[in-house]
Specification:
By secondary structure, the protein is mainly alpha-helical. Helices cover 76% and strands 0% of the residues. It is built from 6 helices and no strands.
């Protein structure tokens, strides 16, 4: 009877722990899905914004190249050509929330999610982190310095057409890379499938 009582108590404890873990996982999933819904809204707005910025930059790039092909371009003409797109010389990055995901990792409830949910969430949050790192790589450091210098030259009316065209080319490449990554993340959130095949990322 004593042995049976001990075994029963251990069994009930195991059931209680399992129920607690399942409940914690469900609660974490609800919080993570709500967080992803907010992130997706911001991401969609960033994609739309970037498509507009890229379109305007492409128009200006073509105008500068056409002008340069026709002969030397004086600063006043270059200033006129770049003026319509100067406010579009930017890439939108959403403010990515990850509190719910980090909390699930910290309290270990993430480990009790279904394998499918865990893999999907890990890939989503990893991809979001990669976008930020890629943007920093493409548009940080030297790029920020040159962009600041261009802003000063623009205000002084001393735009150099060739160097500005080169900057626009880099900006367009960077914007395309970032926007493509954003669209891939959008697809991953909404469909659970990534546009880019590869191994599942580690949980961070």
């Amino acid at each position: 009877m004593i042995v049976l009582s001990i075994m029963t108590a251990l069994g009930l404890e195991h059931v209680a722990i399992a129920l607690h873990d399942a409940s914690a996982a469900r609660e974490s999933k609800v919080r993570i899905e709500a967080e992803l819904a907010r992130n997706l809204s911001d991401l969609t707005q960033a994609e739309t914004s970037n498509e507009g910025h890229m379109a305007k930059a492409t128009e200006t790039m073509k105008a500068l190249v056409d002008a340069l092909a026709a002969g030397p371009v004086d600063p006043a003409t270059a200033h006129t050509l770049i003026a319509p797109m100067f406010q579009h010389f930017q890439v939108a990055l959403p403010s990515w929330e990850r509190d719910a995901w980090d909390a699930a990792i910290a309290d270990q409830s993430a480990g009790h999610l279904s394998p499918e949910d865990l893999q999907r969430y890990a890939e989503i949050y990893s991809s979001a982190r990669d976008i930020g790192a890629e943007a920093q790589l493409l548009l940080g450091g030297e790029w920020l310095t040159r962009a600041s210098e261009l802003g000063i030259d623009f205000r002084l009316g001393k735009i150099d057409a060739r160097s500005t065209a080169n900057m626009l080319a880099r900006f367009l490449v960077a914007g395309q890379v970032i926007t493509t990554m954003q669209k891939s993340l959008d697809t991953l959130i909404t469909t659970g499938k990534s546009n880019a095949p590869g191994e599942a990322p580690a949980v961070h």
